[in-house]
Structures are given as C-alpha cells and as structure tokens.
Amino acid sequence: MRLTAAEERMLDGGDGPAKQKAMSGLVQLGRAFDAPRMVEIGYAHIHAGMALYLHDVELMEDLATMGARMAVPSSVNIANADTVNWRATGAPESLARLQQRAAGAQHQMGAACTFTCTPYWAGHWPTWNTHMTSIESTVTIFCNSVLGARSNRDGFFAVYAGITGRYPLFGYHLDENRRGTHLVRVDTPLRSVTDYSALGFHVGRIVGEGVPVFEGFTERPSLDALDALGAALATSGGVALFIVPGVTPPYATTAQAFAGGRVPEQAVDAKRADLDAVYDYFCTRDDGVFDIVHVGCPHASFEEMKDYARLIDGKRVADGMEFWITTSRAVRRMAEEAGIIRTLEASGAKVISDTCPISCHFARTVSPDPKLGVVPPPLRSIVVDSAKQAKYVRDMIRCDTLLTGTAEAIETAMTGRFVRNGRAA
Amino acid sequence: MKPPITGRAIVEGQASGPALFASEAISFLGDVDINTGQVVGDLPSVHGMSVKGTVLVFPYSRGSAGAWRFLYQLFKHGNHPVAIVTRDPPDPSVVQGAILAGIPIVSDIPDAAWGNMQNGQMLSVDGTAGQVTPQDDAPISSPPQPEDQR
C-alpha cells in the first residue's frame, strides 16, 4: 500500500500512540482488501461504546487516554441506554452511568455526542463525493444513496478513520462499485413509510450485497421514506448503496445507473403481495399479546415526530400499554421547543433518546457485566413499524414481533388491540 | 511436517490449534454464543460445537456490519477461535474484529487443500505470511505449485 509522508509518520508513531494504533489497523484493513492507498475522509460516524458489552466502553476510554482526537467532524452512534432518562426504559442506574462514561471519552476526543443511528437529522449531512466512514449500516446506506457520499459498511474502524482522517481506498469509495447490479420494478403504490421498510426488506433478501436500482415509484420518496428503505435493505441484505434515478447522485436515469448503460432485462419484482409477505413474516405471534408498541426506527426525524403527534390526535395510550417513541437527543430538543413532546407525553407515550428497544434490551443475548445488575425484561412481544427493528428484536433479543404501519401501530397503542397493516381507521 | 498451504494474508499474527471445519457460511452476529463459544446458529456441520481455542475454518462470512463486535466479545469472554481460515476473503467487519482481538486470518485457500481439511487436525496459521501448516500426518494436501510461485 502506498502511503503519503504524513501517513507514514502516523504509522511510525510520530503523531502519538493513538494515531499509530489507528493507522496500523487501517493499513492492515487496506492490505486485506488490496487498497492501493488511503483517501482523506470528511466525516466519521463512530462507535458509542456499548455499555452492555464487556469492556466495550473501555475501548473508547483507552483511545481517549492515549490522546486520540477526531481529525474530522464526527457523530456518535446509538447507545445501550437513554443517558438522561434511563428509568423510562427500566435500565439500572449502573448501566446509565457506564454509558455516560463513554460520553466522557467521546467529548474528550471531540466527537459530537449525537447517540443516534440518524445523525443526518441532527445536522451531520455529508455531501456528494465526500469520503466517509460509518459504524452504522443505516448511516452508510443513507449517505451513499441519498447524499452521494462514499462509505463502506464499517465496524469499529470508523473510530480509527476518524482519528487519522484516512480510510483505505476500496469498496464503495471506488466508482466501479457504485453501479447498479439489479433492476427493481416497484409495481404497487407505497402507502406509508413502513411500506418502504417492507420493500427494502423484500429486495435486500434477493439482492444480497448488490446495488438495486429502483423504478416505478409513483412519486418522489420523502427523506423519511428513503431512510426507511435503506435501513431495511441494509438489514435483510448487505446492501450499502441503492439507486433511485433522479434522487441518488449522480444518476439521472436508469441507464446511467448501470455500467455502460446496460440495463438488465430481468427485473426483481416488488408487488403488493411481496410487501404483505414481509408484514406476515414479522407477525410471529398472533394472539394479540404484546408489551410495548414502538415507533422511531431508525431514530425519528422532526417530521416523523410531527406525524406521531398528528396521528395521536389527543387520544390516550390504552391502560397497561407501553408506547415508546425513539429519536435522537437533537430532534427531541427541537420537538420539545415546538411543543410536540408535550403533546406526545400527554398521551402517555414515552419519548426515549440515545437508545431503542434492540439496543437497550440486548441483555437477553449479550452477557453484561454481572456487576451492572442488568435484568432482561420479561417481554413477550413488541409491536413495531420497522422491518429493521423487527428483525433484530426477533433475532437478537429473541422476542416475538408484530409488524404494522406507523398509523396502525399508534392506533394499536391507543386501543390496546393489534391493528394489522392497511387497517388504520 | 507437511508443506504449508499458501493463501492470502488478511490479518497478521501466528497461532496454532485444532481445526473446526464448518462447511456453511458463518455470521458472527448470532451464529456463535459469546458466553460459551458454542455454535448456536443453523450450521448443521458444527452446531453445538465450541469455537474456543480452535482454528475456525469456514468458506465465507455472511454479512453483518456488527460482526466485529461479536468477534471482539468472544475474545473478551475468552471463547474466541485462535485463528480463522476462509476460502473467500471475510467481510471488512470480521477483519476489523479480528484485528482488534488479535486473531490472525488467512483466506483464499486453494480448492484442492480445502477439500482435505478435517476437524481436529492441528493447524498452524501464519496470518503475516498468509500460510496454513498442518502439524501432523492427517490427510491434508497442498496442490502442486511451480517453483517460481513459492
């Protein structure tokens, strides 16, 4: 791998032990994937330090102590606890305190403590051709597909990239990998953001790690719809980039999205029955028994917070029902100032930031440090409006799910009876 | 000692252990229990076996951006494989987890050698040189190579 003088100095320890450790890891990663050189990045979405995992917070503290500082604008991914309002989720104080320690390390390193999987709603908005890195697959696919930035699906090394301002040149940083591999023909009107989530889950299962190119939307998808589509594609498949011609930079037409303009003759079909099949797949428990209704995966935007308030429309959450709305602390603050949080909370909803059900209930499958005293909650089933949340609730916290549209999920919370997708009043 | 099998150096370092050979793709997110090291996923060839202390051999990794975390957690719980050998290069996230945990990886093992690997066979893995060396007389073979490629 060819390194610049500045990169060689980092590798040799001339810029301190943190940059040396980070550059050494990045060089190994680059060699493994035949990267010819590093690129300068403009943005990093990094690890939160997950309090539930053994010695995970120390990973961030150690780097901060070694003198690591973020060389580029950086945001921080979702955490294992609402670091302000942890009691609302049933988390013990010990867990919240440990998560707060991670925030201390982030502050020391100069990363913005966004604690969200949707940092773009908090102002981190990389632009066309910005090389970047992200530990969160939802951020990777949104930034690649909606903003035209260049990101791989990274893990912990997003932190190393942030510290050095460098990333090895491979994968979705290269033009040749940013071309369509599958044509998808959408053959049904999409009625809700959750329909985009179901569409993404359906298509991700078929295209795997490919790059799907979408045709047939009857209108330009909203930013929230594009967010939901990407999150689901990145969950059922390993998709890092999707292309909607006219939306995804720089592709104006379907032909441009495929190398040499060669549009595949065979298309992946997405019909109403395919979306219905995704809803059915995630309704794993049909006896109407559930403990939490959850919306806000990925973390809700300000627009979605407004939607929730409109859909609640002065009603009250049914007795004995938990209704969770998850969002970032930045959006929460804006919604607070707009009077939206007051409206939501007046219904009995819990507005939770920094975390979400799949992040704060991992205790079921991860072995947290016994000293934390984390007890897995006795959950039977969770009602969700996101295929991503559904998949990880089912597979990682091993809990049943009921997937439905946002309006239906809110009606479920207000009536206490599960409302299937498409049946909202 | 048998001659080394030459593959591709992915993560540097050296380690030896008995081979645990999975014929299916592995996802570190969900297929292996970090508390016990046991394979709990739907992998008939190795289901119920422990990856702890083994040279874990599998064809390729199934994608998840969270794979690094579970490999690192296996290491923190002391239940990690000492080395990994794959047919195809593993996902970037697996590579990142292995670098964090100090687990050497060699990939791109030639097909002829792949077919002969067996459970329990002692393997030495050199992730810096990109070589896997069988430590006993178990039937593992390296394809003949012209001198100039050695």
- What's the number of structural domains of chain A? 3
Return the string of H and E elements of chain A.
Answer: HHEEHEHEHHEEHEHHEHEHEHHEHEHEH
Q: Any guess at the CATH architecture of chain B? A: 3-Layer(bba) Sandwich
Q: How would the global form of chain B be characterised?
A: globular
Instruction: Tell me the Rg of chain A in angstroms.
Output: 21 Å
Number of strands of chain B: 8
Structural class of chain A: alpha/beta
Beta strand % of chain B: 15-25%
Strand order of the largest sheet of chain A: 11-10-9-12-13
Question: Helix and strand succession of chain B?
Answer: EEEEHEHEHEE
CATH superfamily name of the largest domain in chain A?
Answer: Aconitase, domain 3
- In CATH, the homologous superfamily of chain B goes by the name Phosphohistidine domain
CATH C-level of the largest domain in chain A: Alpha Beta
Number of domains of chain B: 1
CATH topology of chain B: Glucose Oxidase, domain 1
Helix content of chain A: 25-40%
Largest interface: A-B, 32 and 29 residues
Largest sheet of chain B: 8 strands, mixed
Helix content of chain B: 10-25%
**Assigned CATH class of chain B:** Alpha Beta
GO molecular function, one term (chain A): lyase activity
Domain Phosphomevalonate dehydratase large subunit-like (chain A): 1-410
Protein name (chain A): Putative aconitase subunit 1
Keywords (chain A): Iron, Lyase
Descriptive notes:
- The complex is a heterodimer of chains A (425) and B (150).
- Chain A contains 16 helices and 13 strands.
- With 425 residues, chain A is an alpha/beta fold.
- In chain A, helix 3 links the parallel strand 2 and strand 3.
- The mean pLDDT of chain A is 96.
- Chain B has one domain (5-134): Glucose Oxidase, domain 1 (3-Layer(bba) Sandwich).
- Chain B contains three helices and eight strands.
- In chain B, a hairpin with a 4-residue loop joins strand 7 and strand 8 (131-134).
- In chain B, helix 1 runs parallel beside helix 2.
- Mean pLDDT of chain B is 87; it is low at 139-150.
- The A-B interface holds A 25, 28-29, 31-33, 50, 53-56, 59, 135-137, 140, 152-157, 171, 208-209, 234, 237-238, 366-367, 395-396 and B 9-12, 29-30, 34-35, 63-69, 72-73, 76-77, 89, 91-93, 95-97, 99-100, 105.
